[in-house]
Amino acid sequence: MNALTLPDIATQIPAHEQALDWVGMQGIALPINLAGQRINTRADVGVSLDDGNARGIHMSRLYLALHALEHNALNPATLQQLLGEFLDSHQGLSQQASITLRGETLLSRPALVSPLAGWKAYPFEVRARQGSWGFHVELQVEVAYSSTCPCSAALARQLIQQRFIEDFANQPLDHAHLLAWLGSPQGIVATPHSQRSYATLQVRLHEDCAELPLVELIDAAEQALGTAVQTAVKRADEQAFALANGQNLMFCEDAARRLHSALREQTAFNAFHLRVVHAESLHAHDAVAVSRWNWSNT
Ligand SMILES: Nc1nc2c(ncn2[C@@H]2O[C@H](COP(=O)(O)OP(=O)(O)OP(=O)(O)O)[C@@H](O)[C@H]2O)c(=O)[nH]1
After folding, report:
1. In testing the pocket of ligand 1, which one of 5, 60, 66, 89 has its CB within 8 Å of the most ligand atoms?
2. Per-residue pLDDT reduced to its tens digit, 1-58
3. Residue 147: which of 255, 260, 273, 222 has the closest Cα?
4. Domain total in the chain
5. Cα of 132 from ligand 1 centre, angstroms
6. Which of 104, 196, 232, 296 could disulfide-link to 118, CB 3.0 to 4.6 Å?
7. Which residue, by CA, sits nearest to atom 8 of ligand 1?
8. Which residues line ligand 1 (CB under 6 A)?
9. How many CB atoms lie within 10 A of CB 213?
10. 101 belongs to a structural domain
């Protein structure tokens, strides 16, 4: 059979006239270039099917256009060009186009004290949409950190005070004795609970943004929290981490407020949504806080 004679179902009239909000493909494997790295991603791409009398979109056209991202650096301009090609190849059918890329970037992170470093993985998503309202890009990233409960810390301190009263009642304070007591498990009789915690940050990029500020977003979040999870750790690093946790006691509300204020300082974003999850070790459930600024789901 000759290619010219191949049946083209997409050109047929559908049984029911109906426009569709989104039609496309999900989970396409695609290597991209972002922040100087080659990253394996999964792509969801699609367009609206505004012509209710068209049977289907042309998926192969979206799939083939997508591969431009394999060779170019991923940035707002390359995304806008791609969505423009999606729409150009669907003239008369579609007025909206979108792409979501999901991947994981690896960043080398130095130890807190020792001259060591290791890799940390940050799951991210890039979402771009083109429609009658214009073009916009959103960036999402997940950042892991440690949170020590401030209530638990205060309760532990009180127990330590009570033990001090009991152990040093009716005796003069001896410096060496007190120092030894402070360094013993019977002195520090209680410890606060800490948990591995996650912040999911979604930001909408300002129109003037020429790059995808993924690393900048991660750095700003980790700096605001002060207790990013570590990579290579020797005892000196662990001690510095214990100090960082003690100096940054956080309820989930505290973490959300810190991140909110750090994101408000960034000029590259014109809207954001953030969610923090503290995977409680006190409870079998999570403590969660959400905050947003200018954020809508359009
Ligand atoms: N629209 C649509 N296509 C599908 C679906 N599942 C698989 N496909 C296939 O996607 C393939 C590509 O479709 P098109 O892009 O229209 O391919 P084509 O007609 O060869 O390409 P053009 O000449 O550019 O239109 C076809 O073989 C379809 O059968 C589906 O659910 N919807």
Report:
1. 60
2. 455 678 877 777 878 889 999 999 999 999 999 988 999 999 999 999 999 999 999 9
3. 255
4. 2
5. 25
6. 232
7. 59
8. 8, 10, 56-61
9. 19
10. yes
